[in-house]
Design goal:
This protein is mainly β and 295 residues long. The protein is 3% helix and 56% strand. 15% of the residues are buried.
Amino acid sequence: MLLGLWCFPTAAQVPDSLSYPDWSVSVEPADASTWDVDLGTTLRASQASYNNWTEGGVSTLASTALLSGKAVRTTWDWTQTYETRLGIGIVKQDTLNVRKAEDVARLNATIEYQGSGFFRRFNPTAATGIRTQFAPGFNYVTNPFADGRDPPVKVSDLFSPATFTQSLGLTYGSEWGFRQRLGIALKETVVLIEKLRMLYGVNQSDPVRFQLGVESFTEVDKEVLENVLLKSSLGLFAAFNQEELPDMLWENILVMRVNKWLSADLEFVALFDRDLSDRIQLKEAVSIGFSFVII
């Protein structure tokens, strides 16, 4: 199903005349084969060194590389959107070994149909997403396996875990950057490394846990001030076979552009998944770096 969505065909059709007001934004491109592509990269680095510094301090070296992009193609009735966010970062503190500081791999795709009448305001939508990481992750504080090993212990790796989602539903969008999608969804949690499956609620003998439920996805993508861009998304997934609170992923990125190559980013992420932890997981980052537009 996942591969089928990425290869979903599109067809150009002229919409029927409407019998009542159009509540959504209508896009009628002159060239239906044109893609609107936005691809950029950000490089961040920080360094602090102390030698015989009586006030104290920890020598630190950190660097991060991010690649993000979005491609949109709109025909008379169909809109395809593909988004990616890839990043890896490291940090070296004083006498400690190099550690991973940032690790994200996200791919998302949606296909929306804009029909007439009701379906011109609420667009039928098929969506899919992948969320994983690139490099091994370690717990440097505790050993969640309780097998007698001292930290650090390996707790994650590429596709261990990985989350795949596929959904069918309706999307409502407004001119000022707000979008809401609601539908039926499948969620697969993949853990390829057998010894790590117990950490993510996956059966020891099976690398994949399948869940069927309801998905809600809310997104705001708007320039709130001049050269200040806010991108916020809230994803909720409630499985039919679980009575617990729904899984939640709330991601917020505030990008402040100083000029065409220098920017400051504020990121806040909240994750709740009872299969991983009974508590909300939080991530916060503030950074300044060089941004380059590739396309």
